[in-house]
Design brief:
Length: about 400
Amino acid sequence: MSFAASVTQEARALVGDGKGRSLATIAGTWGVLLGTRMIYPVLLPYFRESYGLSLTVAGLLVTILWLGSALGQLPGGILADRYSERSMMVAGALVVAFAIGALVLSPTALALFAATALIGVGQSLYPIARITMLADIYPDRIGSALGATMATGDLGQTVFPPIASVLAAAIAWQAGIGFVAPLLVVGAVALWAALPAQADTDGGIDTLSMDTARHVLAELSRENVVFIAFILFLYILIWQAFTGLYPTYLVEEKGLASSTASLLFSLFFAVGVVVKPVAGATYDRVGLRWSLVAVLSGPVVGFAVLPLVEGFAALIAVTVVVSPMLGSGAITQSYFSDAFSEEIRGTGLGVVRTATATLGAAGPVLFGLLADRGYFDEGYWLLSGVVLVVVLLTLRLPSE
């Protein structure tokens, strides 16, 4: 079968039997949520100027955002197992919309941090419910469905940063993020209208008892779950360190204008729009090991040469080389969705994602510490080394 025919077949399977409406609504709102998150790196120079933040504190602000989006995923996963996934996704969108309103009114740096934490917590309610619902809708194509959804997330991350940059420069930084709140309200209404109502289930976990803990730990110890979770942690650490300060690096170290830096930042996610569906479909066909190696090899080179290149064209090339790493999420999350039994899928995903994302949230603040001490360039060489370690660990996995 030709590549074009294979893509057509996958697309028809994803949208057929009325599934397309649910997929589009889940993916569209996810795109708005991720677009909101990636507005932060673009607005960091404005936050630094308005609130007098150092690079370390600016990195801490991004860490708080990621930490909030990590800590709520375990309770979000438990609630997704026990209650309506539709309700969880709607609640997440509305909480973030409210928190953005608080953010644009923040009079002090403390208020800025508090509103940022609430945005993270709201975002944490959405991901697990999204994955478990997609696993129910697409039991045989979770990689493709999740890859398509994550590609829509990258579309939001591609489009929103330059819009935010233009609005911040033309009006104020508050406009650069405030425009998202109405979109999230619309997304919440669309989710409620498009997704089927779900009754409470007795199959999920009711309480965090010792029996519950033993059940989850038994699932975690199966096959390579812990090992893959460690690889996921390293990837999140790298990804958050890179995305959190990349626009700032381009402005302060490479001399680009903020608007130009935001375009390069958007290019990073634009490549992900293509990479993630392909990565998810590749996982469905060839398994975990080689699909991960394929998407992580480019960043080893890209991070290593980034401090050495100058000029807009060279920076475009490096950004494109690094971008395939975005496919890692579609691969690892598809693996975890397959690894856990249905009755605790949300809880198991919540444990893994909360643990890995909480630890990985240290990436931006650690990278900010290096940058404040004059080691911005060296930080990218360090990232290259860590990605190389991830690739070598991945090669130890058994072939499927």
